[in-house]
Amino acid sequence: MMKQVFTKPFSILNAFRLITFAMLMASFISVKAQSKKKPNIIFILADDLGYGNVHSFNPNSKIPTPNLDKLTEEGIKFTRFYSGNTVCAPSRCALMTGYTMGHAWIRGNAKAKDGLAALRAQDTTLAERLKGNGYKTGMFGKWGLGDEDSKGAPHLKGFDSFYGYLDQSHAHDYYTNHLYEIIGGKTVEVPVDTTKYTEDLIVNKAVDFINTNKDQPFFLYLPLTVPHAELKVPVELLKQFQYADGSSKFPPETPFEKKGNYGSQAQPHATFAAMVNKLDADLGTIVALIKKLGLDNDTYIFFTSDNGPHKEGGADPVFFNSSGEFRGVKRDLYEGGIRIPLIVRAPGKIAAGQVNPTPWAFWDVLPTINELTGTTSPKNIDGLSFSPLLSGKKAVKEHEYFYWQFNENGLKEALTKGDWKLIRFKEKGTAEKLELYNLKADIGEKNNIAAKNPETVKLLYTLMKQAKTPSENPLFEWSEIEK
Hints:
It is built from 11 helices and 15 strands. With 483 residues, it is α/β, with parallel strands linked by helices. The chain folds into 2 domains: 39-399, Alkaline Phosphatase, subunit A (3-Layer(aba) Sandwich), CATH 3.40.720.10; 403-476, Arylsulfatase, C-terminal domain (2-Layer Sandwich). Strands 1, 2, 3, 4, 5, 6, 7, 8, 9, 10 and 11 form an 11-stranded mixed sheet that branches. The termini are far apart.
C-alpha cells in the first residue's frame, strides 16, 4: 500500500521571516559594498584669491564668505599652505604633476599655442592616475596646460569630461566665445552663448557631471576663474554690493580705464567683492548638491587658490587686505604671493574645526589624494602625502625645505626651511640680491636680516642650488639671466 505524503503548509509567518532575512542580508551587503567604495574627490581652485579674502582665514576681511566659513568649520584648515608658483600655469603644473619649480616642465606663464607651454605625454597628471584607478574624471574651468592640438590637451591628460578655457588669456573674458569641451574623446571648441556669464556655464556643467556620476567614484577638478581680472559680474550680483542709488558699498571707488586685456570698470571695489561672493556661492552650490545626493560621507572637498591676490584690472588688494598679514601679491615670492588658504572637508573622515600649521604645498596634493583613494603615485615626484593629517594623525614624513622660482622681471627664487626664508633676486648683468627673513619673528617679511646671519644664508643658499635642475624646457631655461 502506497504511503500518502503530506507537506507542511508554508505559513505566512515563515514567509515573513524569509523576506526579513533576505532584506537584512541585502542591507548588509549594501553597507559592506558602500564601505569599500572609493571616496569621491572634489578639488575647487579659485583664481588669484588671496589668503586674506577668506573670512575664516582673515576675520578682518570686508567680503562675506559664509560658505567658505562653513566649510572651514566642518573640516580642517591649513594655515601654512603654499601654491606651486606665484602665477597660474606653473602653479597648476605643480598641482597636477607633483613636481616643484626646481623640476617641473612648466616653470612660468607662456602662450598656450606654443607647444612648449603644454604638458608632455610623459608628464603624468593626477587625473590620469585616478582614471587608471577606476575614477570618472571631469574638469570644468581653466586648464592652462595645453591647447587642443597639444600633448597637454585635457582629453590626453586623464579627463573624461571637460568644459572651459584652454588658454589663460581667453579666461580673462567672462563673456567669451572661446570655450572648449571634450566631445567624442577629443577636445574641441564649442559654440557659446556670449550673453551668459561663463562662470555660470562652467558650474552648471560641474553640477551635471556630479549628477551623472553619483553612483560611481568620481574626481571633479573645478578650477574656477573668479576673482581673476577682468573685473566683471552680472548686474544682479553687483547690486548686492551697491546701495539703492547705485553707489558702491566700498567707497572710495577709483574707476579703472581699459588697459590691455582688461575692460573699464566704474566700481572695481564692489565688483571684486561680488566676484568673491560669487565664488563662495558656487562652492555652496556644490556642497548642497553633495548633501542632497547623499554623498556627504563619501566625498572629500578641497578648496584653495592658485596663487596670491592680483592687482590688475582695478583690483585693490590693499583696500581688501587680500594678502592678510603677509607681504606681497601675485608675482611676488613673498608670503602674500604664494601662501594661500587650504580647506579640506569630509564628514565622518575629517574631524570638524581642525587647524593645522604644518607647511605643505601644491606638489603634495597628488600623493595626498592618491593615498586617500588607494591610487599609486609616480616614484620620482617631489610631493609627499599629508593624508594622515586629515584624520588627526601625524604625517609620516615632512619636507626639509620648500623651493620656488619665477622668471618675470628677472629671476626670483625662494626657499623656506622651518621658520627661515631666503629670497634671491637676479637680473642679467647685475649682482644677485639676497634677503633673509625669520617668519616666526617677522611674518610680514619687513626686516631683511641676511647681513646678520651669514651662516644661515649660506645653508639656505646651498639648499637652493640643490633644489633645482636646469630646465629641460627651453622656454624656462634662464642661464642667460645668471650672467
